[in-house]
Give the backbone structure.
Amino acid sequence: MKRFVLFSGLFAVLLGCGSNRQFTEQDNQDYQNLQELVASKSLEIVSTSAIPMATVAFSKVANSRILGPGNNASNIDITSNSNKLTIKGDSIRGYLPYFGEQTFGGGPYGGNHTGIEFNNIPKDYQVVQNGKKHAVDISFKINDQYRNNDLYTIMITLYPNYRSEIRVQSTTRTPIEYMGRVSKLEQDQK
């Protein structure tokens, strides 16, 4: 009987922890500002780190220290790499450096266009407001600009503190994630 009471008490404590966060008025205002930014369709995301899918082959390459000091197979600093994802109206443009493996049929490997590059009107564009987490999720599909057989499924999560997460699934490459910041499109700020 003691075990049952102890287990029931522990379960009640765990159930109550973190299930319903109370947001302040400032939290709600920040969330509303984020929703307005997304609705404007005039935003850009600059990523600061890439998180490739951990595979045995990629780990071997990363362990050779080819990625530079401070980087490893699970987190690569890309602050010095040019990268940006821009949503302007119905068009989405992006260049994200890619770290990972080409799985099959990806066309020529190497050359000038090794990153994830797109500039088009996406398919299946959706925006979902997640009031419980105070986050906005954007998802779409888009073809690579230079690798015509590569289709990306991109899922973006934006937070009221302007933190961003981008998850990219590809038809010919292993998945990768990016962490960064979202802001209003520069030319619209002027």
Notes: The beta strands are 42-52, 76-77, 84-88, 91-96, 116-120, 123-130, 135-143, 151-158, 163-170, 176-184.
